[in-house]
């Protein structure tokens, strides 16, 4: 089948629910990476979360507003379910799954720090700093620099004002820089 955009996929699913696999195929890997990066869940928990997300999407697909961006809507569902699970399980698995190549994207605008990240020790330390960041900072940094979401998409996903998103990104980057320089 030719490449379909999200709205076309939703329309096909609304015509025939058997087409739901098109949506899972399009978003399974993206959402899996996103869940791992903001939660540090193990693979079994991630797969359970994916199942919950797609069930919720299936149930609520008719309420999707086609004037909005579909990816923001599905990421918002994923975000809400992951945050709920994190709150229920205060102990998180320390299965750090942020890819080394993506970590430098978070702070790449600072060339001196970017050069330091080439060193494996710095990348290892950055993983540790990311793991210990408060969830609010880690979420926006992952969405902006790893998932490559625009500010508008992050606003839609997190339901926070654009100024708050910008402040969280700037503060998160500042915390990372301070921890890595020490």
How is this structure best described in words?
The chain is an all-alpha fold and 182 residues long. Mean pLDDT is 81; it is low at 91-96. The protein has two domains: 6-88, Rna Polymerase Sigma Factor, Chain: A (Orthogonal Bundle); 100-181, Orthogonal Bundle (Arc Repressor Mutant, subunit A). It is 74% helix and 0% strand. Helix 2 packs across helix 4 and helix 8 (135-146) packs across helix 10 (162-181). The relative contact order is 0.12. The chain is built from ten helices and no strands.
Summing up helix and strand content along with how strands pair, one would put the structural category as mainly alpha
Report the radius of gyration as a whole number of Å: 17 Å
Question: What is the helix tally?
Answer: 10
* Number of E strands: 0
The CATH class of the largest domain turns out to be Mainly Alpha
Could you spell the SSE succession in H and E letters? HHHHHHHHHH
Global mean pLDDT: 81
Count of structural domains = 2
The coarse overall form would be globular
Report the CATH architecture of the largest domain.
Orthogonal Bundle
How many angstroms separate the termini? 52 Å
CATH overall fold name of the largest domain: Rna Polymerase Sigma Factor, Chain: A
- What level of helicity do the residues show? over 70%
State the fourth-level CATH superfamily of the largest domain: RNA polymerase sigma factor, region 2, helix turn helix motif
Largest sheet: none
Which runs of at least 5 residues are low in confidence (pLDDT < 50)?
Answer: 91-96
């Amino acid at each position: 089948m030719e490449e379909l955009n999200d709205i076309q996929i939703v329309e096909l699913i609304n015509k025939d629910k058997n087409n739901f696999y098109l949506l899972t195929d399009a978003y399974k890997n993206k959402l899996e990476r996103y869940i791992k990066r903001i939660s540090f869940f193990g693979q079994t928990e991630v797969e359970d979360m994916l199942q919950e997300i797609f069930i919720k999407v299936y149930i609520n697909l008719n309420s999707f507003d086609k004037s909005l961006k579909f990816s923001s809507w599905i990421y918002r569902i994923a975000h809400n379910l992951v945050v709920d699970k994190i709150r229920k399980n205060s102990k998180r698995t320390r299965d750090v799954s942020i890819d080394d190549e993506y970590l430098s994207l978070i702070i790449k605008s600072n060339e001196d720090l970017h050069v330091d990240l080439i060193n494996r020790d710095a990348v290892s330390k950055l993983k540790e700093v990311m793991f210990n960041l408060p969830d609010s900072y880690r979420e926006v940094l992952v969405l902006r620099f790893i998932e490559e979401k625009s500010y508008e998409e992050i606003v839609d996903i997190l339901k926070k004002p654009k100024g708050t998103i910008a402040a969280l990104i700037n503060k998160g980057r500042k915390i990372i820089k301070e921890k890595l320089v020490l």
